[in-house]
Design brief:
homodimer, 216 residues, alpha+beta, Glutaredoxin, Glutathione S-transferase Yfyf (Class Pi), Chain A, domain 2, 9 helices
């Protein structure tokens, strides 16, 4: 199994958490997003979306899109499960996951940040405020949903880590990259801090990956 | 079963196609997105994301996020199936779906279009170009993926309609709302035109819903 990865990619971070939780360690191939290597023809041949992560399973199956990859991993390598078994619970976990994957994260990826600068003349400060705004709106919605629903447990859905926790962790670690915080969202903070204390999740942190900047 | 809906919402359109294909007809409750009714406190109590669709199943289960709702419908009401059965096929269908749901569509929803205007002073023409650009990039990626992969059949994945087709149709009908076209993407066009000839899909079209503008 191989994964195309980059330390700073939040989508890759999600898949890395899932792999770690399942005890899997694919070979890593770095695609330097900051240097634009995802645009190279040889990578576009792997993924025409020019995005990571891409996972290649041992039988050659090539997978992209973090949510699709994580659901695949959970179907093919079901221990430990990262999804509940009942349709309503699965829908809740997927919906919570999508609040990051389909609502907030797409707005702050590198191609959007650079497009805001070139198309609308956005300054770096304006781009940071844009990212803070959308990730912050997502946090408000997470807090409202998680705090009011009795299906919330130690984690987003009951007392086991699911894909919803993985997505929420990527959201909250992501907001720190844009000088934001999740400290003022108490239910979110309780869950994310518990997740980050898990060894498999802690080890997946972007700043612990090859190529990441060293702490000052 | 009840659905909170609006004729122009592409996410609701996706769920409506899935419901029609499964022969289900929930009671419809209109949330006028153009009038900002999704921001009203009584709707925010239903969905703190202030977004539609929201589906309420007969047992009171409240669901949001188009992809999560469609997967739920397919798990709970499996005939006809809208997902393949093998993990690799399911991952491919999900990844193709996410190209709309998680890559392109989040960039062109009303809250983003109005934020571009207020935050960066984008003119209506610039907002239209923004939408054309991101939906167009998505079409290029779809064409590259669908044309090269032998898993593509009459439809996106083999010879049956799946969630990938539903998402692609919403993408292509969506680009027309922004004065764009999918006519120059031959594999996409072949598949979407075949889908639009399906009675259940045709009936779900935004312009056929209550409140939609009448043809001139």
């Amino acid at each position: 199994m191989k994964i195309f990865t980059f330390w700073r990619s939040l989508a890759t971070y999600r898949v890395r958490m899932a792999l770690n939780l399942k005890g899997m360690k694919p070979e890593e191939i770095t695609v330097d997003l900051f240097a634009g290597h995802q645009m190279k023809p040889e990578f576009a041949a792997v993924n025409p979306m020019k995005a990571i992560p891409v996972l290649i399973d041992d039988d050659g199956t090539t997978l992209h899109q973090s949510m699709a990859i994580m659901e695949y991993l959970d179907e093919k390598y079901p221990i430990p499960p990262l999804m509940p078994r009942d349709p309503a619970g699965r829908a809740r976990v997927r919906a919570l996951s999508m609040m990051t994957v389909a609502d907030a994260h797409p707005l702050v990826v590198p191609r959007i940040r650079s497009d805001l600068a070139s198309r609308f003349g956005a300054s770096p400060e304006q781009v940071t405020k844009w990212a803070q705004h959308w990730l912050g709106s997502g946090l408000d919605a997470y807090e409202a949903m998680l705090s009011r629903d009795k299906a919330t447990g130690d984690y987003c859905h009951g007392d086991k880590i699911t894909l919803a926790d993985i997505c929420l962790v990527s959201h909250c670690v992501g907001i720190r990259f844009f000088e934001g915080t999740y400290d003022h969202h108490p239910t979110v903070k309780r869950i994310v801090d518990l997740c980050l204390a898990d060894e498999a999740i802690a080890r997946a942190h972007p700043l612990k990956q090859p190529g990441a900047p060293k702490p000052a």
